[in-house]
């Protein structure tokens, strides 16, 4: 039967609201790229989500295309993954509206991301910022995925999506497949270089905390040399995330880019201290990012190719999304077009 052979479906998106970081790569995209045989994958630039916070239009456009080029350069083969721009697939907005009507004010009010973002953008607490999780649920449910790989900060939104599925299916029958958040077994959680208590973030205001995928080698090296290690007097490379979070973060990064275990790293730097360790991590990261930066730059120069990728991606995505949307429209009582 066709269904038995069906690959599991995986879907995720990243907002083009800041330049992709080493954290985006090691924590997410690298793992996505390793799964393209096993799963049927959809990955998109969540540009519609980005405008919940005011954006410079030219910068948003540039970052959206850069993000696509970087996905490909990180190893996401457009032949094996459906790569698309959210706003190119109108079904997201359409299902988003319907799901807004099945999402409760109280549920939305409890979202910690909404509380954080409205505190940070108190001059622009708009409706989109509030109902964002209903659009995110639409992003997910249009493709009936089995798994949604997300970071810790998005788990609450996936949980809300699951509540919507339960509510909607409870009224109309089995319309949506119940998605599971997917927390990869491997995959590094990369913290800020200047504040190892916070996640490395593409929207961090402190540029020294984040390493960007397109960053120049000399800037990368400088940031690693300045990275916050710990105020203990030990000056010894040892994995102890509680007492030495800065060193643990650098070890996580070094391990992710070299494949070495923490034990091997401790041996390599035994008796050498942070003065030798920090530049070594910087060098290893530079070598990991070099081919990605070069390939992304090459792809960005080939506008016709990029365009062909996002057009084909939108067409494929739209075909799948439309099937789900039709079913939903019928269920809720809209007259067929
Ligand atoms: N909200 C996610 C973020 O800010 C991005 C996103 C939008 C997403 N739609 C999604 C992630 C659907 C997974 C699935 O990181």
Word description of this protein:
- This protein is mainly α and 337 residues long.
- It has 2 domains: 217 residues, HUPs (Rossmann fold, 3-Layer(aba) Sandwich), CATH 3.40.50.620; 80 residues, Tyrosyl-Transfer RNA Synthetase (Orthogonal Bundle).
- The chain is built from 14 helices and 5 strands.
- The strands form 2 sheets. A 3-stranded parallel sheet has the order 1-2-3. The chain has a two-stranded parallel ribbon with strand order 4-5.
- Bound molecules: tryptophan.
- The shape, in one word, is globular
- The pLDDT mean sits at 94
Low-confidence stretches: none
Helix share of residues?
A: 40-55%
What is the name of the CATH architecture of the largest domain? 3-Layer(aba) Sandwich
Oligomer class: single chain
Strand content: 5-15%
One letter per element, helices H and strands E, the order comes to HEHEHHEHHHHEHEHHHHH
Terminal Cα separation, in Å? 32 Å
- List bound small molecules: tryptophan
CATH C-level label of the largest domain: Alpha Beta
Major sheet details: 3 strands, parallel
Q: Reading side by side through the largest sheet, how are the strands ordered?
A: 1-2-3
Radius of gyration (Å): 21 Å
Number of helices: 14
The CATH homologous superfamily of the largest domain is named: HUPs
CATH T-level fold name of the largest domain: Rossmann fold
